[in-house]
Amino acid sequence: MARIPFFDMAAELAPVRPAIDRALARVLDSGQFIGGPEVDGLERELAAALGVRHVLGVSSGTDALLVVAMALGWTAGDEVVTTPLSFFATVGAIARLGARPVFADVDDRLLLDPQAAAAAVGPRTRAVLPVHLFGLTASPPPVAVPVIEDAAQAIGAGPPRGLAATLSFFPTKNLGALGDGGAVLTDDDALAARVALLRKHGAEGRYHHVAVGGNFRLDALQAAVLRAKLPHLPAWTAARRAHAAAYRRHLGAAGLAGAEVVLPPDEPGHVYHQFVIRAAARDRLRAHLTAAGIGTEVYYPSPLHLQPALAELGYRAGACPRAEAACAEVLALPIHPALPADGPEAVVAAIAAFYRG
Questions:
Q1: Domains, the chain
Q2: In 3-state terms, what secondary structure has residue 290?
Q3: How far apart are CA 286 and CA 288, in angstroms?
Q4: Residue 211 and residue 233: Cα distance in Å, rounded?
Q5: Is residue 159 pLDDT above 90, yes or no?
Q6: Quick count: other Cβ atoms within 10 Å of Cβ 200?
Q7: Cα–Cα distance list, 127 to 20, 82, 139, 246, 330 (Å)
Q8: Where are the beta strands (DSSP E) in the chain?
Q9: Residue 34: strand pairing partners
Q10: Which of 2, 84, 173, 290 is 20 to 30 Å from the Cα of 36, by its Cα?
């Protein structure tokens, strides 16, 4: 059987390579590499595509979270309720400012349980930070504090429903740059102005600083690449959804869906950054697929509340049992837009062979 990589960046870039080459040449010819018309253009085009009032390009998805946290004034003694099932950047933005992450368990969709999040809100809670994991949007928690959405894996799944949302343009994201990049999305004029100030060292004009910010600017080369790729995002999302449908069809036909393999939720807004199954025999299944030349990934092998860097928070095993169980079972299968149409069938055939054995 032909090798099926988890990602195939070369194949994914090939159809847009001419447009990317022209975009890079445009920036090189301009000599303007920080800010300028490419960043302004990307922000306008993304705002129109995503149905949001303000898009502010920043240096990474991590910095998007951090600059929002700074803009809202999170500091020592504050608490932010979030999910234990995410990449470390989600809690890193909280902890770097001295605030305390408070973990509420996930629901059956592997997203922050809205009721558990609401129950975790206390007098020191400054915000709730759900993560739209794997391309699926978390349900809004019924809380009075601001909701900041980590939408790094869910571009195109819908506009922000909270005060703000953050995006990542890491190369493997549904809309990826050729390096790091990110964005803040909000309909709030005051928050947008504050983020715009803080992303350039809190400067109003040249060498006049009214706040302590950071160097969180999106560079023009990455913005130009993203502008070249943005028109293709709907087609790439459609390809991901077609692959997801094929996985469901073939797993069902093999008698695996819901028995040996638990499928991800099938919801209209899902943009399938990943197609993540759950399998009790995850590690042995993954070894079998690797031997068959099929790439897979585990998102995530350990929940955030049990990470050594957060040991001082005092969480122990059993604090978030659903997230902990998921970390032992989740397995992401190839679903990138360049995956051949028969790719899901071949992957499922290898999965079926494992269970027959």
A1: 9-231 (3.40.640.10), 233-356 (3.90.1150.10)
A2: helix
A3: 5
A4: 36
A5: no
A6: 16
A7: 38, 9, 15, 39, 28
A8: 54-58, 79-82, 100-103, 125-129, 148-150, 164-168, 182-186, 275-278, 330-333
A9: 219
A10: 173
Amino acid at 167: L
257's tokens? 């869906």
**Looking at residues 282-290, what average pLDDT do you find?**
98
Q: Rounded to an integer, what distance in angstroms lies between the CA atom of residue 31 and that of residue 189?
A: 31
pTM of the prediction? 0.96
Query: How big is the chain by its Cα radius of gyration, in Å?
Result: 21
Average pLDDT score, the chain: 97
Burial class of residue 3, CB neighbours in 10 A (0-12, 13-18, 19+): exposed
Q: How many CA atoms lie within 13 A of 294 on its CB side?
A: 24
Alpha helices in the chain (DSSP H): 9-13, 17-30, 37-50, 61-71, 89-95, 114-120, 189-198, 220-229, 233-253, 282-291, 321-327, 343-356
Share of the chain above pLDDT 90, in %: 97
88: DSSP letter: T
- What is the C-alpha separation between 173 and 155, in angstroms, rounded? 9
Neighbours of 264 (CB within 10 A): 24
Give the whole-angstrom CA distance, residue 187 versus residue 164: 7
What pLDDT digit, counting tens, does each position of 115-152 carry? Answer: 999 999 999 999 999 999 999 999 999 999 999 999 99
User: How far is the C-alpha of 281 from the C-alpha of 329, rounded, in Å?
Assistant: 7
Query: What pLDDT, on the 0 to 100 scale, is given for residue 258?
Result: 86
HSE (side-chain half, CA atoms, 13 Å) at 288: 17
| Cis-peptide, bond into residue 300, ω within 30° of zero | yes
Rama region for 107: left / alpha / beta (φ>0; ψ in -120 to 50; rest): beta
